[in-house]
Structures are given as C-alpha cells and as structure tokens.
Design brief:
486 residues; alpha/beta; Rossmann fold; 3 domains; 7-stranded mixed β-sheet; 11% strand
Amino acid sequence: MTAESTVPPPAGQQPRTAERAVSVLAPRGPVAGRRLPAGRSRRRTRRASRVSLPLVDLAAALLGALVVPGALAYPLVIALLAAGVMALNRHARLYDTALVRGVLDELPAVCGRIAVGWTAVAAFSPLRPVPLAVVAGAFAVHCAAACAGRAAHGRRAARRRPEPALVVGPVAAARPVAAALLRQPGCGVRPVGLVTNPLDVLTGPAEGPKLPVLTTDQETHRAVIQNGVETVLVVGAATRVERAALLRDLAAYGCVLWELDAGSPSYGFGGRRESAGQLAGFSRRLLWPAGGPRRGGLGKRVLDLVLSGTLLLLVCPVLLVCAVVLRVMDGPGVVFRQERIGKDGRPFTLLKFRTHRPASAHEAATRWSVANEQEMSRFCQFLRRTSLDELPQLWNVCRGDMSLVGPRPERPYFVAVFSQTHPGYRDRHRMRTGITGLAQIHGLRGDTSIEDRCRFDNAYIDNWSLWQDICILVRTAVLFVRPTGS
C-alpha cells in the first residue's frame, strides 16, 4: 500500500479504447456560419434514463406508503409525498445524469429529502394519528427502495456506453487529461475530441491518445451533434476566458460545462479551493449549470478515534497471532518502525509488522517495494498480500500521526524525489496521511503511477467531506475481501 513508482505501470499505458478514437464525420451540407440549435430543443434529446430515476422515486414512495395501514385510502397524500420528494431531488440535481455520482455519494441527500417528506406527512396529513414507529418503518422502506432502485439504475448505466465529452484547452494540457480519462473507464466519461487553437496544434506535443483535434467552432458544433456530446471539460481558467464565446454556445446547447484543474494547483493561506468533486482524480468545478460544492466540517478526528480504537480492540487477537508467528519464524524485531512524512511535511514514525529485513538503514530508506520478492517467507507474503502488515498503523491513527483516510505517507527520500518530478506532490501533505485513500480504492496501490496517485490525493483533499471518508472506508472494506497486495 505504500510502494510507489515513477515508471508508469502497464495499466497506465494507452488503452485500446484510445486507439479506437471517435472520428468527426464530414458534414452532409454546408456549415459555414451555422449556429447551434436552441438549448430547449437540445435538451429534448437527453437520454431516457433521465425519466427512470423519477420513476424509481415514485415506486419507492408507493412502497413506503404500503407500510402505513389505511394509507391507500388517502391517494392525494401519497401523491403529494412523491411529488414533494421528487421536486426536492430535482432541485438538488439528483436526476441530472451528466453529474456522475455513486449510490453512496447520493445516500445522505436522498434519505434527507425523504425524511423531509415523511415529516411533513406525519405532521400535517390525515395520517398523523399513526404511531411514530409505523412512520419510521415507512421511511426506512422508502429509503431502502429508493437507494436500491438508484443502485440498479447505476449498474445498468455503467454497462452502457460512457458519456461522450469534449476536452477544451491547450494541447499540452488537454492530451494528458484525455489520456487519464481513458485510463479510468469507470469514471463514466469518454473523451471524443480535443478543442484547441490552431497554433496549439503546431506547438503542442504529439504524444497522447489519438483523438480528433478540433480547431474551429464549426468543427466543434459538428462533433457535439454527431457524437451526442453533453459534457464539456474546460482545462484551466485561462481557457474559460479565451474560449468564452464558444463555451456560451455549448452551454446554450444544453451541455454541462466543467472546469478541470489539470495543473499544479496554487493553494493560498486561506485553505481549500472551491471545487465540486473529482473526475478521474482531477478536481472539477461546475461552470454550467451554476452550482457549488458542499463541504463537511467537524468530525474527522472523532471518526478516526472511534473507529481506530474499536478496530484495535477487535483485531487484538489477530495482532497477537501475527506477532507470535513472526517472532517464531523470523526472530526478534516483530514491529518495523520507519520515518515517514506526514501533514505539513512533519516526520513521524510509522509502525508495521516486519515482513522483510533490509541490509541497512540506507536500503530501507531508499529501496523500492519488496512486496513480491522471493526471499520473504510465505507468511510474510501473506501479510503483505492481505495488508495485515498495516494493522499496527491503527496506533498511529490513535496517536494523531495519521488518519484512517488520506494520502499514503512516503519516506523522506522519495518525497524529495517525487516533489521535483511531479507537480503538486507536496500539496498532498496539506492533510493528515492515511491508511487508505481515494487513490487506493481506484486501484492505485503498489507499483502504480505517481502522477495518477498524486492527482487523486489532491482531488480528495479539495473535496473532503466526512461522508466521503465513510464511503472510502466502505469501499476499502469491500476491496479487503479480494486483496491485491501492497
């Protein structure tokens, strides 16, 4: 979980989807001076899945109402409940398929709006004599049905073709963004073209995915029509100013515009930059339709203390067995202590079970991962493969050196190297390092790309919330049953 590499992994090589680039077909007629259609007519071509989510909420409201005895005798109450919840969800853009979310990400918003609906029903409707326990049961069934329906909808959407998107910006910045999106097909967005200035085509790098390069507004309009583009990714604030006219046209056409931070973000003393989630590890901000992010506040340290303390108590027998086996097989020195860099660049001593004995302290500080080396015993390989060797870091969390969720800490030697070769690497240290993180649940563990890991770590910090931490912990627990090693 702590090993990193400056060499791009085989998985980071250009995927086959990049080779099958979507071409921009020649127009059937003249396009000079052609304008985009009105936004309202464009929105009529939205996918049918925009209708399925309201139907899911309607069915969930009916299931919840069935729990209440005699509720079917008040169809107007049920209709108002469903309509109210659907109106609240629409206001929160929970029906916008262009805003890719997971069911866990939506859970607080969905359940919160259902709670508002049932509170109004219990307080002001003819059902108010119904016992509170029955109303609570109806609320629970309503939430379960809505979340299950959204999860099924999400799985069905994941099997379909990802959302086609255009990347707008200089070639030097747009190509790496497109390549990163193609390396993460699960993000739900697939770039189909790069929009840039003609001069950038001559001066920009040729390396990267083989996507059409669009240099005129007419080519861009044609690509939007023929590829069904509803998502536009704007790389950098300067692009937003330089291509303002084109972006206004795309917004009027019904496209959702996102600004991606593809460079090394400049963080001032004021703290966090405004952001609205991440896409393949890039921090993004919604430009159109207007919207802003939400951010959690207090609770991260409380969550760390409660969960790490509880886990330490629960895994004490496992820790004891691992320590005894290591002591018998490999002799003294069961716990491995190593200096790592934490929040604000402060060093701390990280604890792990010793699975390998380096030849010297210099080798321990500068040698790369030894996770698959043959000289380790089978039990040590088992500890590494299942990440059980990381369990002593729960004590680091209790002490405050680390958090349960955050960027993985690294040794001082590699922090210095990566900070010179990867822009933004030092920005990872704005938050406590963690046992798991956003990069790890996206498969960036072991010998994987530092560039991708750095981007995901900074995106996690930009968009931090307590609920995001809980979602990452849940996904880490799921991944634990099919370990891939550290």
